[in-house]
């Protein structure tokens, strides 16, 4: 029996040693340690071993099993690393990896979302209207007379039908008041179109954000407080904001809003960021005529409105010197906002 154990062990170890792949190794394991395996069969002979030899033979069997198990494991590891090395051969691990390009939000989207977020926290709801407008919603209802320069064919894209590409988002004011009774507090971000020569500060398609608040007793103080708060939130609470008297046909009084810009290495300067004012009673009258009711009678309601260029806000926020960067989709520019 002892000789048999020794012979089985020697044979098993030789078989394991000779194996060349993982599958044959598994066959060898079954052939030695499996139910019908050589060592398993040998172990069954224990019952015929005389009592006084049982301990010694048992030890031998255990030692053989351990040696074989160890050899199986060792061989498995060796085969595995051989396979790994083969898989890696020919791959140059020092080559730079292909970089993954993750997209990011466009600066205009970032500034729009931020502006909308601030105003929504103050209770403004989103509204919108068509970009292809008619003269009534873009001009007439906004107290802009037929001979106003903004209506000139040189400044506005007209269709043969008489419709036009809206020159400002203020048309959404009219559409909202026609559709809903006061009180209303809306903002409308969106595109506007003008026949401007494209240069570092002008595009023929640009982005605005319009606001309108109408209720009983809306005051100029409300207008100032709201917009001052807005620009402090957007550009920092230390930012100086000033309201400079101006003229718009649809508001009276009207103002332009400037913020003081402290660009690095430059003297601080005031820069215009928005137009605003108290809704002109003539606008309410036009809405009354269109709605055919007196919900917006200037005797009953007052309101303020404002409009700002989102492109301009993005340029100020990030010190962008040329507005064309916002439409060129140059990833060297855009990836700075990732
Ligand atoms: N619509 C004006 C523009 O495009 C901006 C504006 C000024 C909007 C004053 C307003 C406002 O609502 O009250 O230049």
Automatic annotation (TrEMBL):
Q: Which residues form a coiled coil?
A: none
Classification via SUPFAM superfamilies: Class II aaRS and biotin synthetases (SSF55681), tRNA-binding arm (SSF46589)
Essential cofactor(s): Mg(2+)
Binding note for cofactor: Binds 2 magnesium ions per tetramer.
What is catalyzed by this enzyme?
A: tRNA(Phe) + L-phenylalanine + ATP = L-phenylalanyl-tRNA(Phe) + AMP + diphosphate + H(+)
GO MF entries: ligase activity
**Highest taxon of the lineage:** Bacteria
Listed Gene3D superfamilies:
Bira Bifunctional Protein, Domain 2 (3.30.930.10)
Quote the InterPro entries the UniProt record gives: aa-tRNA-synth_II, aa-tRNA-synth_II/BPL/LPL, Phe-tRNA-synth_IIc_asu, Phe-tRNA_ligase_II_N, Phe_tRNA_ligase_alpha1_bac, Phenylalanyl-tRNA_Synthase, tRNA-bd_arm
Q: How does it assemble?
A: Tetramer of two alpha and two beta subunits.
Q: Which family does it belong to?
A: Belongs to the class-II aminoacyl-tRNA synthetase family. Phe-tRNA synthetase alpha subunit type 1 subfamily.
| Enzyme Commission code | 6.1.1.20
Q: Signal peptide: which range, if any?
A: none
State one Pfam family annotation. Phe_tRNA-synt_N
- Domain Aminoacyl-transfer RNA synthetases class-II family profile: residue ranges: 118-316
Q: What is this protein called?
A: Phenylalanine--tRNA ligase alpha subunit
Binding-site positions, Mg(2+): 252
Q: Where in the cell is it found?
A: Cytoplasm
Which keywords does this chain's UniProt record carry? Aminoacyl-tRNA synthetase, ATP-binding, Cytoplasm, Ligase, Magnesium, Metal-binding, Nucleotide-binding, Protein biosynthesis
């Amino acid at each position: 029996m002892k000789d048999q154990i020794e012979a089985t062990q020697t044979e098993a170890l030789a078989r394991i040693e000779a194996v060349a792949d993982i599958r044959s190794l598994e066959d060898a394991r079954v052939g030695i340690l499996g139910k019908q395996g050589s060592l398993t069969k040998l172990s069954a002979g224990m019952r015929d071993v005389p009592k006084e030899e049982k301990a010694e033979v048992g030890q031998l069997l255990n030692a053989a099993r351990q040696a074989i198990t160890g050899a199986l494991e060792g061989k498995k590891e060796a085969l595995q690393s051989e396979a790994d090395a083969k898989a890696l051969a020919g791959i140059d691990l020092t080559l730079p990896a292909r970089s993954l390009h993750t997209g990011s939000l466009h600066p205009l989207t970032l500034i729009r979302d931020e502006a909308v977020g601030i105003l929504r926290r103050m209770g403004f709801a989103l509204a919108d209207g068509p970009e292809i407008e008619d003269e009534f919603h873009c001009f007439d209802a906004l107290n802009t007379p037929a001979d106003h320069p903004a209506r000139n064919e040189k400044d506005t894209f007209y269709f043969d039908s008489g419709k036009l590409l809206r020159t400002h988002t203020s048309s959404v004011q009219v559409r909202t008041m026609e559709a809903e009774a006061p009180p209303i507090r809306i903002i409308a971000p969106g595109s506007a179109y003008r026949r401007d020569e494209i240069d570092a500060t002008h595009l023929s398609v640009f982005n605005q954000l319009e606001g309108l608040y109408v209720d009983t007793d809306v005051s100029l103080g409300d207008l100032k407080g709201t917009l001052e708060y807005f620009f402090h939130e957007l550009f920092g609470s230390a930012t100086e904001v000033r309201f400079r008297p101006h003229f718009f046909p649809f508001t009276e009084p009207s103002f332009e809003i400037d913020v003081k810009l402290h660009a690095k290495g430059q003297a601080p300067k005031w820069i215009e960021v928005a137009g605003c004012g108290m809704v002109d009673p003539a606008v309410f009258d036009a809405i009354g005529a269109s709605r055919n009711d007196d919900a917006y009678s200037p005797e009953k309601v007052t309101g303020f409105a404002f409009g700002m260029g989102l492109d301009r806000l993005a340029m100020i926020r990030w010190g962008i010197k040329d507005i064309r960067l916002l439409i060129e989709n140059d990833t060297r520019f855009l990836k700075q906002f990732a």
